[in-house]
Amino acid sequence: MADLLTAPAADTTQALAVSRARRTMPRLSGKLLTGIVMIAAIIAFGVLGPLFTVDPRDAGFDPLLPPSAAHPLGTSKLGYDVLAQVAIGTQGSLFVGAVAGLVALLLALIFGVLAGYFGGALDEILMLLTNIMLVIPGLPLVMVIAAYVQHTEGLGALARSSLLVALVLGITGWAGSAVVLRGTARSLRTRDYVAASVVAGERPLRVIFVEILPNLVPLLAAQLIFGVIFAVLGEAGLSYLGLGPTGSITLGTVLNDAQTGQAVGSGAWWWFVPPGAIIALIGTGLSLINFAIDEIVNPKLRLAPAAARRQRRAHRMGRGIGGEEVIA
Q1: Whether residue 110 is found in the same domain as residue 157
Q2: Which locations, inside or outside the cell, does it occupy (predicted)?
Q3: How many domains does the chain have?
């Protein structure tokens, strides 16, 4: 008899958990689907493309050949196959974006969540450091650090590698996310379930990892995507200015080679258009995914399309939002 009474309760609890999980997942909207398809295609091109192209550092071809069957994206001024360089460059830019995004997210978690949860003197110290990073202009700071580190003795091959550029971009790009996470963590620490865990004697780190971080997953995903976009664009900017990874090939270094090789003046559009287009597509695809995640973080964004549809339907039927007759 007891089993018969507890079975419906267990089924109800499981159904509520599934319903709650579905509400926290982003809807398969047009923005989300388009962004996923774009990013998946770019990742596939970056991972599989180098397997089917020639050596990107092979300079044995004729220079500035236009696109053809042998070279679908032509060749560069030095005789490199542009398709091979763009394929390996996409892989390099994605690597920089992923590493820099993860580093920035980790630092944002440390400075934002710890400050928001503990408060007090720790909050003041961490926010002081965060505000200092916020007021310093981002691009000049990245340029100075990249130029200094790349000329530091003892780093060897790491000095001009993609990994070093990714670390520099991650270390300088966490402050904005930390402010957002701090505000959300301060709000969550006042919730009843967090207070109950504290009263029960749970350790602070366990409360953070078990009670607070799971509720920050949509926001963390959005901040990670923003960090990846910032890193991809930042690496392209650094490489265009000659401060990028000379030991690796990225989309930014391809653009830098095109700029120094006067691709625009010589009309070699196939040299600079493809890497620029892929950078734009990466930013667009990740932004679309970020917009879909924003609808989860911000309920107003999630409910706004439905409210707009109801309003348009009411006007077509000649009625107001509350059902009253509209007088023309």
Answers
A1: yes
A2: Cell membrane
A3: 2
- Structure tokens given for 40: 């998946």
Alpha carbon distance 57, 248 (integer Å): 11
Q: For residue 3, is it within any domain? A: no
In a domain, 73, yes or no: no
User: CA–CA distance from 91 to each of 51, 139, 162, 248, 288 (Å)?
Assistant: 12, 23, 11, 10, 21
- Assessment of whether the complete model's pTM goes beyond 0.70: yes
Q: Are 80 and 58 in contact (CB under 8 A)?
A: yes
Same domain? For 240 and 115 the reply is yes
Whether 287 and 324 map to the same domain: the answer is no
Per-residue pLDDT reduced to its tens digit, 225-256 = 999 999 999 888 888 888 878 778 899 999 99
Pair (161, 302) in one structural domain: no
- As a whole number of angstroms, the distance between CA 248 and CA 237 comes to 15
- Tell me whether residue 280 is exposed, middle or buried, using C-beta atoms within 10 angstroms of its C-beta: 0 to 12, 13 to 18, 19 or more: exposed
d(CA 104, CA 76): 35
